[in-house]
Amino acid sequence: MNQSRWAVWKSLFWMFVKINVLTTSGPASVGLLYKESVGKIMTEAQFIEAVGFSNVLPGSEALKLAMFVGYAAGGIPGTVVAILGSILPPTIIMLAVASVIEKFQGEAWMAGFIKGLGPAVAMLIVVVAWQIFRSESAKSIKKRALLIGLLSAVAFWLDIPSPLVLVGAGILGVILFR
Fold this sequence. Notes:
mainly alpha
């Protein structure tokens, strides 16, 4: 193996370790992954495509993005390295959190702490969506994206199951973005 492959794999591993230590939830990690990968490993269009596919396919969004980015940067070995970098931090953190929760599970402050996390994660998702939506490559697709977003919101209000909404948005995207 030549040095450059090792450097790419090492970079991928540490990038995903960093992302998964700093942002331990799948949706919240998208913003940091965007900052770390766009322009360095992949284009913004590739990243948007990866996020779109990761939402349609079943399974963990963060792991699907890790596989996509890892493969784009280092092929199959890059995929394996990116997944290892993605899996190790949450596994270690979850073992630590589980032991703490077991110790403090009856405490009143723990319930308040958990309730406070929801709005913070929601805001992180809004910030990432805003950054992608106002980017240069997204300027040409704003009207169509707004239409898909509006129809998705209507589907949410009508309580249509999310898999059907995602499939419908994908089909509408194929029609609108030819």
